[in-house]
Amino acid sequence: MPPSPAHGRAGWAVGSAEPRAQSAWGGGEGSRGEGSSRVLALVGPTATGKTALAIELAQRLGGEVVNADSRQVFRHMDIGTAKPTPAERAAVPHHGLDLVEPDEPFTLADYLDHARAAVSDIASRGRLPIVVGGTGLYVRALVRGFDVPRVPPDEALRAELETLAAAGGPPALLARLRRSDPVAAEAVDPRNPRRLARAIEVAEAASRTAIADACAPADNRAPRGDAPRYDVRLIGLTAERSLLHARADRRVDAMVTAGFPNEVAALYGRGYGPDLPALSALGYRELGEYARGLRPLDDAAQATKWATHRFIRRQLTWFRREQDLHWLDITDGDLAARALATIEPWLALDPSRHRPVTAGTARRGGQGA
Q1: How far apart are CA 42 and CA 40, in angstroms?
Q2: Is 356 helix (H, G, I), strand (E, B) or coil?
Q3: Least C-beta-crowded within 10 Å: which of 105, 199, 246, 322?
Q4: Residue 367: pLDDT above 50?
Q5: How far apart are CA 186 and CA 169, in angstroms?
Q6: Cα 287 vs. chain centroid, distance in angstroms?
Q7: Rounded to the nearest 5°, which phi and psi values hold at 232?
Q8: Other CB atoms within 10 A of residue 175 CB
Q9: Highest mean pLDDT among 19-28, 209-218, 245-254
Q10: pLDDT tens digit string along 316-334?
């Protein structure tokens, strides 16, 4: 249905196993190329239960999870990013968690390098890669096979944009981005000057940016270069907007109870300052103001809830543009059964090659930390 109005760089496991000529999840009718890997992508706005469903599907289909959340790549940021728990990672192998420190840069190009290696490794072992997350740009660039240029920092442009932001705030940056790349302007957080400035930097580095490519309808762009192409099934989770907001609010409350304020304080204690892009993430900015004595906890929690509502709206706007996405309302009965009803015909599942996942079937190095 359509949407309603362990630490260390072992987070990605690049396998040493010999690639198979044809894995259990490669090729087949509907593939984008002969022998292309099948990839299941599970997307949707925050607080829709993507992680829980992904684990159940992985256990039933012999899959492994590939992270597509732009904040779960950072170490020491667990509660506020809703990172899968140790128990969840023990149940199913997870790839792409805890890759870098909060003060290390991590770009879309970095993500694609790591994620493509993980997909290749998983498929080479005859398992199903399941890409899971709410960062729409990550998902689209990966599953649609876009090449993303590495755009180095432009210090002169950054100084110019800092002056622009000081004079006109985020609206001035957003107006400039709209002139350079109106599609990217719809996806970026309009209140976040750092992300706006970086989007401008990328947009003005090329006449047709990687972000614009990834935002374009899939059938209007052909993948460029040697980027892998996949046979993809996209599943989107959704619900009525009011229910999504209520679920998000309950999750913020649960995060605060679980120690989210202490997690932010610990990040500051490690020397990671509030000016870092990673710490402008949802909730970390608001709880950071509490940690620095700038607002009371209740106010910071409420501000996080409002920011999450805005984020949900942007996510739904993004995913509505995604072609070939099969929407599932999370309130309509057995979610896993309905997802399988959509997935299994695509897989044309051969029971003789069906191997349920267990914690022992994958190297522990592929499970983050």
Answers
A1: 7
A2: coil
A3: 105
A4: no
A5: 17
A6: 22
A7: -110, 140
A8: 13
A9: 245-254
A10: 999 998 888 999 999 998 9
